[in-house]
Design goal:
Elements (H helix, E strand, L loop, with lengths): L25 H11 L14 E2 L4 E2 L8 H7 L6 H28 L2 E9 L3 E5 L6 E4 L17 E9 L6 E4 H19 L3 E9 L2 E5 L3 E5 L18 E10 L4 E5 L1 H18 L5 E9 L3 E5 L4 E5 L20 E10 L4 E5 L11 H4 L5 E10 L2 E7 L2 E6 L21 E10 L4 E5 L11 H4 L5 E9 L3 E7 L2 E6 L21 E10 L4 E5 L7 H8 L5 E10 L2 E7 L2 E6 L18 E10 L4 E5 L1 H25 L5 H17 L2 H18 L1
Parallel strand pairs: 5-7, 15-17, 20-22, 25-27, 30-32
Antiparallel strand pairs: 1-2, 3-4, 3-6, 4-5, 6-7, 8-9, 8-11, 9-10, 11-12, 13-14, 13-16, 14-15, 16-17, 18-19, 18-21, 19-20, 21-22, 23-24, 23-26, 24-25, 26-27, 28-29, 28-31, 29-30, 31-32
Helix pairs in contact: 9-10, 9-11
């Protein structure tokens, strides 16, 4: 049915096709009767249909005879002229129909049609023409695929063009709606009146919004700030403003951002008029970042920094607030020129550190929740804004704990003791081991000095070995306390990890949690034995162990070494004596220091001692020889004897040299 927009068009009656069902005999009979019958007896078949091309009005072109006439006339027989006339009438009707369709297409007249059926490709619409209208499925279905219309429903469409292949006309329901709302949209655009619409889908660069017709909402016009996820708007109703129209192309561009900015500016003006530092306002959390939250105060955003959110520790602002939360904040700083606002949340409550010393006295037992664990300890929250550190050294009396995570983990509830409180630095030191018995306090009574213990080697270091004597109690055997006789560079030379050993307690320091042990003390000290058996001046035999630029180290007893300085390694004549490793020589002890366990040796002193003995023997022989000369030179003999006796008491090295010289001269004369 043609819409009222074109009143000249009237409803056309369809061609009666009953003639197609007549038998040939009836056709011939009817032909003969038609020439004799009067106009009042039968309904004439007009040779020229009544038509009005301009208006599209089509009169009935062919009607069947009344049943009474057919009974009287009997069978009708049609000739070729009648068929030609009917064909010509049909062609004229087709021409009129085409002219009417062309008129509808050219003027884009709104036609009210009826939904006949829905196929897999189109919706078939009866638009009052001989051919039916073909409407795209997306115009009769909702976004979710459900139909908006049922068969028999009336649909307003605009005829766009004739379908070239399958027959029929391409029609558009959207264009019909667009024509109806176009005037409304033009008025809204001119007056900048907001319109409401439903977001239909996401398209490239923005959204499609149904505001009576499908309009394009660019992504940059959705919010005041850029939007990342456009899919979240699909299916929501929004208010927009028409900012661009193109009726010829049928394009409509809308904006939501303009309305939001106007609303924001209006609220901003009110907020700026009342905003001042120290005031408490209610705002809405708009956005979260790693460093804080942005709060909408009413057209103006303020920054709530993470450090001003809580007196305690926050890893992220989401631990306290979420987007959309309505919170109260305090204005800490306001720059009116730059329109920057700094906000605080924790400032609405008293600082818990102000009276922390009174509420957490030293020695008090408190319970808290482990917030985090580090290499050096664990942070425990005692209350909102108050947290303390349990250092790794204060967790257990044992030194064997490798990492605090072996003892506690985040979220654990633990009991602690207050060790110290520093409100200025906002620090509280906590202890856990103080709630346990200290094994070191009774250790001195349990393991007195001189007690022999047995333990397992737990660890070896460059300076000694740690021996575990019981759970959590380790003693140190210094490398110097491993052997009396061997010069040990590393404990691994005599001990192995995990080996069971016996040791003697050398000392206990409970306050420093130190236990000194010794292994060599289980055996007699060879140095003490040596010093007890020898004195300075003793001549002993020794073996060269090693040499150095300043002398040689000589083993003079098992486990006992002495040093022969290079200045002492000469014979009686002053000639240097070469000391080689493993050579054995006689040495004279010239120095002894029992405390430092040092012994000084000399080869020179041995030579001098031997030469002195030889001189005394020579002088004794000379004296006896002079005494035997008797009678002739008695006076001289006595004088010589007296002289010799005086030399014996006063001369040693000089007499030795003279004697040696005389001995060599005598050997040369004999030769």
């Amino acid at each position: 049915m043609v819409d009222d927009h074109n009143p000249e068009l009237i409803e056309s009656k369809p061609l009666n096709t009953e003639i197609e069902t007549l038998a040939p005999e009836a056709t011939a009979e009817n032909t003969s009767m038609s020439s004799d019958s009067t106009p009042t007896e039968t309904t004439q078949i007009p040779t020229t249909p009544s038509e009005n091309p301009a208006s599209g009005q089509i009169a009935p072109s062919l009607s069947a005879s009344t049943s009474d006439t057919e009974e009287e006339a009997g069978e009708v027989d049609y000739d070729d002229s009648d068929f030609a006339a009917a064909l010509a009438s049909f062609d004229r009707e087709q021409a009129v129909d085409a002219a009417a369709a062309q008129n509808l297409t050219a003027e884009e007249v709104i036609v009210t049609g009826t939904l006949v059926k829905i196929t897999d490709k189109h919706a078939i619409i009866d638009i009052g023409l001989k051919a039916e209208g073909l409407l795209a499925l997306d115009q009769v279905n909702n976004p979710d695929g459900t139909p908006k219309f049922a068969v028999g429903d009336q649909i307003e469409v605009v005829v766009e063009r004739e379908e070239t292949h399958g027959g029929g006309y391409i029609v558009s329901h959207e264009k019909a709606l667009r024509h109806k709302v176009w005037d409304v949209l033009e008025a809204a655009a001119n007056s900048k009146t907001p319109v409401k619409g439903m977001v239909v889908s996401r398209v490239k660069g923005g959204l499609t919004v149904d505001i009576g017709i499908k309009a394009f909402l660019p992504g940059s016009q959705i919010e005041v700030r850029p939007v990342r996820n456009l899919d979240g708007y699909v299916g929501t109703e929004i208010e927009v403003r028409v900012i661009k129209l193109n009726k010829k192309r049928g394009n409509v561009v809308i904006s939501r951002k303009e309305l939001l900015e106007e609303d924001q500016n209006a609220k901003k003006a009110v907020t700026l008029a009342t905003l001042e530092e120290g005031s408490v306002l209610t705002g809405t959390v708009k956005n979260l970042t790693d460093y804080g939250a942005f709060v909408d105060l009413g057209g103006l955003d303020g920054l709530l920094h993470i450090t001003d959110m809580s007196w305690g520790r926050l890893t992220h602002p989401r631990d306290l607030v979420n987007v959309g939360d309505e919170i109260q904040v305090k204005v800490l700083k306001f720059d009116k020129d730059k329109q920057r606002v700094s906000l605080g949340f924790k400032q609405l409550t008293p600082d818990p550190w102000l009276d922390a010393t009174e509420r957490y006295p030293i020695g008090a037992q408190v319970r808290g929740r482990v917030l985090s664990v580090t290499d050096y300890g664990a942070f425990v929250e005692l209350e909102q804004g108050i947290e303390g550190l349990v250092h790794v050294s204060e967790m257990t009396w044992s030194k064997r704990m490798k990492h605090p995570s072996k003892l506690v983990k985040p979220g654990d509830e633990v009991d602690t003791i207050i060790l110290s409180v520093n409100p200025n630095d906002r620090r509280i030191s906590l202890g856990m081991k103080q709630l346990q018995d200290n094994p070191w306090e009774a250790l001195e009574d349990k393991y007195p000095t001189g007690a022999i213990i047995e333990g397992r080697v737990r660890n070896l270091t460059d300076f000694g070995a740690f021996i575990e004597i019981e759970d959590g109690i380790d003693g140190l055997v210094h490398v110097s306390n491993l052997s009396w006789t061997k010069r040990i560079k590393h404990p691994s030379e005599v001990l192995k990890k995990g080996e069971k050993v016996r040791a003697i307690v050398l000392g206990v320091e409970p306050e420093n949690r130190r236990l000194s042990l010794g292994v060599k003390q289980l055996q007699p000290d060879v140095w003490d034995t040596f010093f007890a058996q020898h004195r300075i001046g003793d001549v002993i035999k020794g073996k060269v162990l090693r040499t150095a630029q300043f002398g040689a180290f000589v083993e003079i007893a098992e486990g006992v070494e002495g040093l022969c300085h290079v200045s002492e390694a000469v014979d009686a004549t002053g000639k240097p004596v070469e000391l080689k490793v493993d050579d054995e020589h006689e040495f004279k002890i010239v120095k002894m220091n029992q405390e430092e366990k040092k012994v000084g040796l000399s080869i020179r002193a041995v030579g001098e001692e031997a030469s002195r003995a030889e001189v005394e023997s020579y002088k004794e022989q000379a004296h006896q020889s002079n005494s035997g000369g008797g009678g002739k030179k008695g006076g001289q003999g006595n004088q010589g004897s007296s002289s010799s006796s005086g030399s014996s008491s006063s001369t040693t090295l000089g007499d030795l040299l003279n004697w040696k010289r005389a001995e060599r001269e005598g050997e040369e004369s004999n030769d």
